[in-house]
Design goal:
Number of strands: 23
Largest sheet: 6 strands, mixed
Protein name: p-loop containing nucleoside triphosphate hydrolase protein
Strand content: 5-15%
Distance between the termini: 79 Å
Structural class: alpha/beta
Membrane topology: Multi-pass membrane protein
Keywords: ATP-binding, Hydrolase, Membrane, Nucleotide-binding, Repeat, Transmembrane, Transmembrane helix, Transport
Radius of gyration: 37 Å
Subcellular location: Membrane
Shape: elongated
Strand order of the largest sheet: 5-6-7-3-8-9
GO molecular function, one term: ATP hydrolysis activity
Helix content: 55-70%
Amino acid sequence: MPEDSVSLWQWCTFSFVEPIFGAAKTRRLNTEDVWTLSPFFTHKNLFRKYLSYPNRSLIRFLIVSNSLDLIIDIVSELYAASAGFITIYCLQRILAVLSDSSRNMPEAHLYAFVAFLANLSFAQVDLFQMWHSRRCYERARGQLFCALHYKALLRRDLSTGSSQTTETVDSISDSADLGKIVNLMQGDAYTVALRFWQASSVFASTLRLIIALFYLHSVLGWSSMAGVVVVLVAYILNYPLAKYNIYVTRASSKARDARLSAVNELFQNIRFLKFYGWENFWASGVRHRRETELRWRVKENFIAVLISFIWIWVPSAMALFSFLFYTLIAGGRLTVAKTFTALALFSNLQGPMMELPDQFFSFLHAYVSLQRINAFLQEDEIPAWASTLGRSKREESPVANKLGFEDATFQWGSPAKGAPHRRFSLGPLNINFPIGKLSLVTGATGSGKSALLAALLGELYCVSGSVLISKAFHNVAFCAQNPWLEHATIRDNIIFGSQRGFDEARYNAVVEACALLKDLEMFDAGDLTEIGEKGVTLSGGQRARVALARAIYSEARIVLLDDPLAAVDMHTAQHLVDHCFRGELMRDRTIILVTHHISLCAPFAEYLVELEGGQIIRQGSIEELQASGQLKTVVEVEDEIDTSLEVERAVTPENEADSIKSGSTTVHDKPLRKRSGKSGKLVEEEHRAEGRVSLQTYLTYVRAAGWITWLLTFTLMVFMRLLNIVNDLFLAKWSMAYEEGNRPIALLVTAFDRLPPPEENSTPWLLVYTAISLGSAFATLLYISLGYYASLQAARKLFNAMLKRLVRAPSRFFDVTPNGRILNRFTSDIGTIDGALQQSARAALMSGLTFLASFSFILWVVPIFAPFALFIAWLYIRIAPRYIRAARDLRRLESVSLSPAFAGFDELLRGLSHVRAFGMEDRFQETFYKKVDTFQAFDHVYWLVAGWLRWRYDCLGSVVVYASTVFALLLGVSDGFAAIVIVQAGIFAEASRGLVRVAAQLELDFNSVERVGEYLEVAQEAPAIIDEKRPPAYWPSSNGPLIVEDLVVRYAPELPPVLDGVSFTAYPGEKIGVVGRTGSGKTTLALSLLRIIEPSGGKIILDGIDVTSIGLEDLRTRVTIVSQDVSLFTGTIRSNLDPFGEHDDLECFDVLERCHLIHRSGGGMQKRDIADLDSAISPTGSLSAGERQLVALARAILRRSQVIILDEATSQIDVLLDDQIQKTIRQELSRSLVITIAHRLKTIIDYDRIMVLGEGGRIVEMDTPKALFAKGGVFKEMCRRSADWNELRGAVES
């Protein structure tokens, strides 16, 4: 940062920031144009101190670590508070001189100059105070950010217990998910840090209040105590409002958490919701939560209106009652000096009187936020041994050479957190896995295999016993059943921050061993192809093999693999076994492999563990189990393949159809290089607007808020400003009426000439003043209320419009737009629209009106001031554009820099167990430091630029006040006019400074509307419902065929077709299998049937209706797809099965039983990990991958669609259960048209017909399996090359 090495003059004037103005003038500012943070500001250095702080008391640490800045801030503010009365004293002396008959003008000029010097000193002190207070705020905010992120890396996932009952749903929702954590960062961290920025205000306001009251006593005597009584009454009225405000704030925060969580869940699962046509239903749930949040905001606004009304009117009420007592009871004379000195004091009192309760409420809000942050920081953590975060790299583990369990029992979640009954339990476990060898873990679906690996990693709650494992030195690698991949290139995902970096020889060997060569050849950018969020660029099998490659490439000595062979065909499985598990890459490494391929792996395995219902039913060395005959039993029950088969050991992908053109695969000389100049980048850089905010953006907000409300608001502003000037003129007239010989004041106030002399009867004067005061108060009340109403309307309309637009966006939009970027719109930008924007808009308008009114009044009274005023105005205008250009770009950079932090947080929370397994917590924490450093740099430089402008405008304002005072003295105007001119000059100076500042802030805040407006222009899918083209309720019927004629599908108009001239007819009740090489268009065909990708040509006619002619919701709710990637939602089993509540309990239990999730015998019910329909589950719950697929299949069957598309819907379940599920599909869906996209030919060999897709997306052949075998074409060749050839041939010939 430039302030690290500057001269005294540069430091006093902030001229060291001026280089950035030159850059902003010639071009749009970019990241490289902005200085990086000083070492004193970098978050890594800041947070290290917190980690070493004893007891880690957060608030104590924040105060101690920022104590120097706090002290300087408080001392500076106290100086400004006390010395601020110098100008009031000077005003009193000037008016006293003018009212005196002798008129000692040199004395008046002296006091004017003293006031000028005082104002200049305030400008300088304010600049230093702003820098120190801002640094205190930025450091506190950064420390809170890092503490929240650090905790996220350590906390236990409290939402993982699927067997919890509805009694624990609330506790699950109280634990922090992504939405809540983002809210803690974007809301609560800011609220707490803001108290450090404004900490000195409490002390300064108290001091100003005390001095002003004593000063008032010296001016008005004991009559000023009437004003004190008004203040006390105001505080008494505030007390119940304060109590209610705390309750409302807490409830509002919870409502905001719920809304953000709902938004996050909606867009995390938007692709699945579009498949089912449920996106509008889920969006309505988000809108419902938003309305709940807004209802609490209405209550917050109501309290704010009452409090604002009280404290805005208090100065006027103080003046009214003090003048009333002074004139009526004390019989005093209101001279001009006394009146305007008292008014200046009352005006000076308004600040502290409004700030004190505001600060009080702000501290209460900060207290609530601090409680929420502390509650998050106190959430359960994984045990110390399960995390490498902050651990010394040389730290040895006492169990470095052991792997296993000793008398260990585990369960999901802490016992105190959920219902103890019916919770899934694993153990007791006593296992010693052999070091440097392969161990197998097997068991039926839901038996606890994945849970055993989670227990080894420390992700399960250990009820008793101990775990033997060491994660030091990146000793562990993990490949989960549901692979988690980073939003990065394929190469970066495989390397995954390995200490060895990119070792090309090892990397190529790993890629070949994991059968990824042919996959990488398919991508134009090779291994530099970017993987989207959740691995959207890759197929399920490709994701599994990239995750496996990541584990193998690592330097880990312990490799935990959760059924990686389930996602691949037998050829690839054999290849992985030969080249990965038996190859050089895994030599002397300890491998724990969860698998059903027992016969494939047993010959070279050392140890085997079999689980059932969370308990070990069989374990021992392979030799012991083979000798006792138990290995044969395990193979018969659990094995995936027929052991008698001779498997052709060729390198092929998981899709068996790919084998028809690949006899063998060799390592090319440069297999991983790009085949074209394409970068492989999927996600584009976030759009950042250039130049001024467009007029259309302002109109968007005004239309959303309502034209009438804005017109009324502007009218009230004009009325309030005029009333303010009338108030000053009336008080001048009243004061001058006590003094004989003064000339009457202009035509504007001739109506007041009819009032009796105040010495004879002051009551009429008091009544007029009361009327003006009450008129101003109620105008202010209406003005504030209208502002909150307009803000609420705009926030509601823009939120709903953006939500509706995004929900209707095509799936491709979500492939190239990170979820964190969308979340940033719904947090930061909507937060600005909810709160700050309306205030900025009103402040800009009010500053503009105040500027014009004060300027006009001064010129009317002191016309000679006009040339000088124009010169000052030119200086203001000359300075402003430099600031606005730079500030606008810096704010936009700041907004854009927040999205990567949230996107990274999203990824981290989804893959937390993987990050911890690899011991990569420090890497992710370091990445977070860098992202927040970038954001903080933009924010810090913006405030340096703001300080540069503030100092110059403060100095110019001081010159304006001094010059107008001098001109008024030189012209010899009356003391009443002089008082008004001096007061209005101060108002003019403040308004002119504020005008540019609030106008710039307004433009910056409207950047949020601009960013929301960007998403209001997102391309849209076809309409959800077309009223005139709605299909009948029975559509598609049980006797209507699916006819596809000359179907052509392109991903973009300029790209070649993925499907070209596809034509076929499928009849009701028919089972169609679709096979083909990778890239032949199988998935595209399924997506085109649902119009996820719109056809470029041809027709799709279902039961007599062209599907392109009806609404998407009507189509997608009648056609069901079950994909390999399962989406579950936070809620219960019932809400996931039947979100619309269309089925009763009996139907739900029946479908669960048919999908083998529960087993009923007689009157009893044996269940897996599901307590009942109200069992709470979450997107990352304790259901295994196989159980999740069973829930998804049950959900599809419960819909009873006539057309069902299955895409590897049972890939994660064991072979025995898979056979049972296939029978269920044939029984339950006997009358439905079933289209199955199959990578494994055994899945579809008994189907009615098989469709083979070839190169270019054309149908190569389509007929019954028997006819295709007789023909001897492509399908038979696929089967011949399959590892299941004997079984396939037997099925066809039977």
